[in-house]
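Q: Convert this sequence to structure tokens.
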Amino acid sequence: MNYYETVYIIHPALQEGRLNDIVTKIHNKLEKLKGEILYIDNWGKKKLSYQIDKQKYGTYILCQYSLNCQDIKDISQELELNPNILRYLTTKINEPDIKEGSNKLEISKVVETENNKFSNKDKQDINKEENNKSIIHDKKIDKKDEIDKN
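A:
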């Protein structure tokens, strides 16, 4: 058995229950393939560097597991075909790279704190975008007025 690490980004609009369902589905697939989940961590909702499927944010999940190398294609296919998973990256790791901690995911607490934290940040981003649009719009109106006067 080899050790693998997968980071996948889940659609940001999913609520806690639906997020649990997606993570559980992936983990059930791992267990079905006789893999063992060694570590899992929810990094929370983060802003993406660029838009993926018209989304600015995504919920990041890190999962470390052991699995036979022949079965890694099945996991990749599961991640690829799930429309709620925006992106994923699977890498082979060595045993010393395995993080210590829980192999069960506690999503509810992380989702609540991340939603509260990012709701204010989202409002700030929206306000900045609206202010920028209004400034640009005002400049266009000023230029139109100057042209009309001449």
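The radius of gyration is 21 Å.
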